[in-house]
Amino acid sequence: MPAYRSLAALNRAVVSCRACPRLVEYREELGRVKKRAFRDCDYWARPVPGFGGPNARLLIVGLAPAAHGANRTGRMFTGDYRNNWLYEALHRFGFANQPTFTGRDDGLALTNCYITAAARCAPPENKPTRQELDACLPFLAADLRLHRRVRVTLVLGHVAHRQWLEAAGWWNRLPPRERSKFAHGAVDSLPDGMTLMCSYHPSLQNTNTGRLTRQMWNAVFRKARALVDRVA
Fold first, then answer.
1. I need a labelling partner for 36 at 20 to 30 A (CA). Which of 79, 87, 152, 154 fits?
2. Are 139 and 156 in contact (CB under 8 A)?
3. Averaged pLDDT, groups of 10, the chain, 232 residues long
4. Residue 195: phi, psi to the nearest 5?
5. pTM for the whole thing?
6. DSSP secondary structure string, 90-153?
7. How far is it, in rounded angstroms, from Cα 185 to Cα 220?
8. What are the residue ranges of helices labelled H in the chain?
């Protein structure tokens, strides 16, 4: 596993990665064909690096870039419906300087927060394979090593939860019965002092069905704010 010495070095490696042929083909095809609503846009169509700074106290781990979201914008968790939910909450609770995203040069900045994902390329049907997740795992592990001040991690969905446990080493170190279990709103304190929080992913499938409401979502970030302030 490469020992990246900085976020810049890690993100350069992420952006240049071509390890998964299926994902390379898919992300680049999206950049050529484009969605009608974005036909005048210059798609990023590469792996998406994390977003934020090295001094973050809160780490947010999602699943993967959306086909016409971050695969288009090049910034994690922006460009589609999920952008509205995440950045509105981050702004409301003091982790972002503005609630919306309009483009890579819009001045959006995070405070005490870093956003990354289990997979760095947009996958077909939003479903990376186990092999593709394994190929991306060293990038997530490097994110964890480089963000030494993180004390609260928020995982969005089951896949992000497992990948974080693997990247952090807990998947192998703890027997199954002692591993953190995924449940919306769950908060676990781990032996190394990390607090692990879980939330349903703000996908249309969850938000349109009411499985995840704004009230539930904001409650997670209210708790994250309180936990970050407690350890700051």
1. 87
2. no
3. 86 97 98 93 96 95 95 91 84 95 84 98 97 98 96 98 98 92 96 95 93 97 97 74
4. -105, 125
5. 0.96
6. HHHTTSBS-S----TTS---BSSEEEEES-SSPPGGG---HHHHHHHHHHHHHHHHH-TT--EE
7. 6
8. 7-15, 21-33, 70-73, 81-92, 130-146, 158-168, 170-173, 204-207, 214-231
Measuring CA to CA, which residue among 153, 156, 151, 147 is closest to residue 229?
A: 151
Cα gap 33→37, rounded to integer Å = 12
Sequence ranges of the domains in the chain: 7-231
Domain 7-231 fold = Uracil-DNA Glycosylase, subunit E (3.40.470)
Q: Are strands 51-52 and 58-62 parallel, antiparallel or unpaired?
A: unpaired
Residue with tokens 């460009």: 79
Amino acid residing at 155: V
Q: Are 157 and 220 in contact (CB under 8 A)?
A: no
CA distances from 171 to 104, 115, 146, 165 (A): 35, 21, 20, 5
Amino acid letter at 78? T
Give which of 188, 182, 129 is closest to 160, Cα–Cα.
182
